[in-house]
Specification:
The complex is a heterodimer. Chain A is mainly α. Chain A has one domain: MetI-like (MetI-like fold, Orthogonal Bundle), CATH 1.10.3720.10. Helices cover 82% and strands 0% of the residues of chain A. The longest helix of chain A is centred in the N-terminal third of the chain and has 35 residues. The radius of gyration of chain A is 22 Å and the shape is elongated. Chain B is α/β, with parallel strands linked by helices. The longest helix of chain B has 33 residues. Chain B is built from nine helices and ten strands. In chain B, the strands form two sheets. Chain B has a six-stranded mixed β-sheet with strand order 6-7-8-3-9-10, sandwiched between helices. Chain B has a four-stranded antiparallel β-sheet with strand order 2-1-4-5, covered by helices on one side. Chain B is globular, with a radius of gyration of 21 Å. Chain B starts with a strand and ends with a helix. The chains are: A mainly alpha, B alpha/beta. At the A-B interface, helix 6 and helix 7 of A face helix 2, strand 6, helix 3 and helix 5 of B.
Chain lengths: 234, 280
């Protein structure tokens, strides 16, 4: 049976006096870095993939690009992120004897993985923008790319902001797997405490609460952002 | 001025898959012409208009605009589109931009491209001057100032807005305007580039009846100022009154063309007679 005061005392001792909070802070930083940069890289990759995907041209370079994009999306959506992390860390990078920070590795994988998901999200957003917007942009003399960046994408992003928010939230939660490649994250910091005290209940409840608070925080932020982006419609 | 050919369309063809929409269209558009394109729905008149600025790539034939064949894939179509305004049935104002930005966007983009080009040329010239000392020095091209260009663009846009009496809407977003206002903004957006020809794709079809008048009167004003216009329309009154040439499209070809008087009071082909009896 759980003796709550004793368990709490054990946790508290480890967290504050045993300096477990230092790990927690490092973990928080790493989680934030991986989620934020993963989202940014994912968004950029997603935009590129989505734009390639909506091209209608049947010229050979475009077809080749589309093939590459399809393979990319299939690979990254068809395998678990943990497996991709392990592959990159233990197989690819050690085979090529590349030595970079594990956090950077995690950012790369999170970015590439969410890029594959983001591509589909952004594509649906672009498709939801009236085709006339692109035509009008072309008719005032702007190129396809310029119209895309200045007219279509801003409107598409406004439409898909809630979905991108979800993607970010799931990225935050998925960072809990990075301890597989020896990155200190929030999960790992609480796991360390739990393993050293043999008292699992409180550390893991606290861990869940930490994730919940972070996610709720971003939910509120996103709601506000959405409201602000809607200013040009009534 | 009237006898200068601005647009020369030769054997224009367009297929969508196996369906032939335009079969063999030939037309000369003179400077200052106001051409009304009429015809039953599905006859290819909108496709014809959209082929003129390559929104739809023609399958065959050629379109000479200012002596350049637009169907040639090596031509930079963006550059020529700046000289060809277009007004759509569904307005297509940029929803994420204010009215003022809507009007200035094309102008600013064109100026930005020019500035980049000038900078590149200057860079090359400087390299040349630095390394090749013996030859005569290359002169630098003047580079426009970004702020000045912006001020000029705003001035043009505000002038046009004042002309249609909507200058108080400059900072508003398109979603707050009525259909008639949107379409008039779309027209001055096309005018802001000071194009050589403006294409109208059924500009009044999506409007409430009471708003048609304001748009048509702006178009009349534009026509009387000497702008070359090609108008796909169902407004026979407008075609009769303003156009100096009426084209009747049927089944992917120009079935009949001539002055409004000839076409409306003395139709020759039975198909045109049938069409007119239905719409007049």
């Amino acid at each position: 049976m759980l003796d709550f005061p004793v368990a709490w005392q054990l946790f508290w001792n480890k967290f504050i006096e045993g300096q477990g909070y230092k790990n927690f802070l490092i973990g928080l930083e790493n989680t934030a870095i991986i989620a934020v940069f993963g989202l940014i890289i994912g968004f950029l990759i997603g935009c590129m993939l989505a734009i390639v995907n909506i091209l209608r041209s049947r010229s050979i370079p475009v077809l080749i690009l589309k093939g590459i994009v399809n393979v990319y999306i299939t690979l990254f959506r068809g395998t678990p992120m943990v497996v991709q992390l392990l592959l990159l860390h233990y197989a690819v990078f050690s085979l090529l004897s590349i030595n970079i920070d594990s956090v950077a590795e995690a950012v790369i994988i999170f970015g590439m993985n969410s890029g594959a998901y983001m591509a589909e999200i952004i594509r649906s957003g672009i498709n939801a923008v009236d085709e006339g917007q692109m035509e009008a942009g072309r008719c005032v003399g702007m190129s396809f790319g310029a119209t895309m960046v200045r007219i279509v994408l801003p409107q598409a992003i406004k439409n898909i902001l809630p979905t991108i928010g979800n993607e970010f939230i799931s990225l935050i939660k998925e960072t809990s797997v990075v301890s597989f490649i020896a990155v200190m994250d929030i999960t790992k910091s609480f796991q360390t405490i739990a393993n050293s005290t043999y008292e699992y209940f409180i550390p893991y409840i606290m861990l869940a609460l930490v994730y919940l608070v972070i996610v709720l925080l971003f939910t509120v932020l996103l709601k506000n952002l959405e409201k602000r982006m809607k200013k040009n419609e009534r | 001025m009237k006898d200068e050919v601005l647009l020369k369309i030769e054997h224009l063809q367009k297929n969508f898959g196996r369906q032939e929409v335009l079969k063999d269209v030939n037309l000369d558009v003179m400077q200052g012409d106001v051409i009304a394109v009429i015809g039953p729905s599905g006859c290819g008149k909108s496709t014809f208009l959209r082929c003129l600025n390559c929104l739809e790539d023609p399958t065959g034939g050629s379109i000479y605009f200012d002596g350049v064949d637009l169907c040639d894939l090596r031509v930079d179509i963006n550059e020529h589109r700046r000289n060809m305004g277009m007004v759509f049935q569904s307005f297509n104002l940029f929803n994420n931009k204010t009215i003022l930005d809507n009007i200035t966007l094309g102008y600013l983009y064109a100026e930005q491209k020019k500035r980049q080009k000038a900078k590149r040329a200057n860079f090359k010239a400087k390299l040349h001057n630095f390394f090749v000392r013996k030859k005569p020095k290359k002169e630098l091209v003047p580079v426009s100032d970004r702020k000045e260009v912006k001020a000029k663009a705003n001035e043009i846009a505000m002038g046009l807005l004042k002309r249609i009496g909507l200058e108080d809407k400059a900072k508003a977003f398109p979603s707050t305007l009525s259909g008639g206002q949107k379409q008039r903004i779309a027209i001055i957006r096309a005018m802001a580039m000071s194009p050589k020809v403006i294409l109208f794709d059924e500009p009044t079809s999506a409007l409430d009846p009471e708003m048609v008048g304001e748009v048509l009167s702006l178009m009349k004003e534009l026509a009387s100022s000497g702008m070359t216009m090609i108008v796909v329309t169902h407004e026979m009154g407008f075609a009769k009154e303003v156009a100096n040439k009426v084209i009747f499209f049927n089944d992917g070809v120009i079935e009949e063309q001539g002055s409004p008087k000839e076409v409306f009071s003395d139709p020759k082909s039975p198909r045109l007679r049938d069409f007119l009896s239905k719409v007049l």
